[in-house]
Amino acid sequence: MIFLSVVLTLLGLSTLLWRDDELIGLPPVVAGSGLVVLGVAAGVLWVVRRRRRWERNGEPRPVGTVLDRAKALPRLLRERKAYGLPTSTMATWAFAVVYLVSPIDLLPELLPLIGVTDDAGVAVWLLTSVSTVTGQYLRWERERSGQAKKARKTR
């Protein structure tokens, strides 16, 4: 869903910036604005659905700011076994980074704007995935330190 949101928003922005003639009988301003609105709406819908899923499944919500999560990433990577971070998640992240820096693409950059959308989608997915996992790691870290404090008090 987030990939669709990014693609629609980028297509809408490119239509607004570079399109001069009509698109399916609509002026470029109307078509571009409509695509941007649809893209933003898809992103908002994704966020709302994600939060409801967290509440329904009882999943812990991520905590911390973006800076807190960025600072926690090295600790997460060091303590990945204690935290229980699956190797498959790490491999998927590594594959995404390799895909982003490699010159080989599913959609080549020669295609105007469309060639960049696959890279943008992978980048957005990678950032949201890493941010979510590090936020959950921060929650785990806080709960673990709270349990350690309680254990010290009972001694």
Describe the protein in words:
This protein has helices at residues 2-18, 28-57, 66-78, 80-83, 87-101, 114-154. The longest helix is centred in the C-terminal third of the chain and has 41 residues, at 114-154. Helices cover 77% and strands 0% of the residues. The protein is built from 6 helices and no strands. It has 155 residues and is mostly helical. The model has no long low-confidence stretch (mean pLDDT 81).
Radius of gyration: 20 Å
Low-confidence stretches at least 5 residues in length (pLDDT < 50)?
A: none
State the major sheet.
none
Q: Residue share in helices?
A: over 70%
Percent strand equals: under 5%
Tally of extended strands? 0
Helices, by number, come to: 6
Give the topology string: H per helix, E per strand.
HHHHHH
Mean pLDDT: 81
**In one word, what is the shape?**
elongated
Q: State the end-to-end distance.
A: 50 Å
Summing up helix and strand content along with how strands pair, one would put the structural category as mainly alpha
